[in-house]
Amino acid sequence: MEPASHPHRSVLYMPGSKERALEKARSLPADALILDLEDAVAPAEKPNARALICAAVKAGGYGPRRLFIRINGLDTEWGADDLAAAAAAGPDAILVPKMESGAQIREVAARMATGTTPDHTRIWAMMETPRGVLNAADIAGAHPLLEGFVLGTNDLVKDLGAAQTPDRLPLVTGLGLALLAARAEGLICIDGVYNAFRDDDGLRAQCVQGRDMGFDGKSLIHPAQLAITNEIFGPSAEAIATARAQVAAFEEAEARGEGVAVLDGKIVENLHVVSARRLLARADAIAAIAAESL
Length: 294
Ligand code: COA
Ligand code: MG
What we know:
Strand order of the largest sheet: 1-2-3-4-5-6-7-8
Oligomer: single chain
Distance between the termini: 16 Å
Shape: globular
Number of helices: 12
Number of strands: 10
Bound molecules: coenzyme A, magnesium ion
Number of domains: 2
Helix content: 40-55%
CATH topology of the largest domain: TIM Barrel
């Protein structure tokens, strides 16, 4: 399947040092997995985690789940070795933390070009510092290998000196700027994590907010968060039915030589049909990976 058509409803972090989690993930209903070498792994564990993650990626067996390796920053003692090993292992993407400029993305791309990186390996950027968010447009347009952003909302809250409030009002500007930059360049954009992983109602509310803002999906910390996230970021049966009806109504109007249709008292123009077709394509892609996971 082409990466662009792959859904990214649920993107689950897992510490690269935990062999059991790496194994378990082969059967979890996540659209993508972030095998982490950065903050989820203690310094003493990093070389071991690097070896475990690269072996897991090479061994495969993850079915339709996309695999991202999150490396340590290139300004740390582990970053260069992480990038070289990750690029050689050939995951779907290398996720780079704390990106703050387009030049940093080009540096990652240049290093990948010197190794034996497979063609399918893309770059993703963590957007999680005030400077990174302010430079989001420069980062988003930096290199053709860049495919998406993951918001690092815990780091952003820390750097802003903001509070974690249920409505996320203190974060809305940052989330919106990253989304605008991503969409301007046709990138995928994934919302930050919800820390209280046993609080289903809180997670649901935050997923709805992120989905309504335009995020493609949410990054997660625990498998208990997968079902709700997949549900909220996947189109509902009702939304699919409406999209099909919009497309049909518009095609009938076109056949009559008209450029606009009316469905249930609402106007259906070309732009609504573009959104409806995109939703139907996403529903098809979700059905396809569900079938592949069986
Ligand atoms: N990915 C895959 N499997 C996971 C997982 C994850 N992120 N988190 C938990 N699991 C597994 C556990 O291995 C355990 O499996 P088992 O029952 O087969 O042994 C099962 O799910 C239940 O785990 P549980 O006991 O509920 O959680 P925990 O107390 O062991 O771990 C966390 C809680 C938060 C420490 C853990 O979920 C975690 O490390 N999450 C990722 C954190 C991270 O990556 N942060 C960096 C980015 S913000
Ligand atoms: Mg972070």
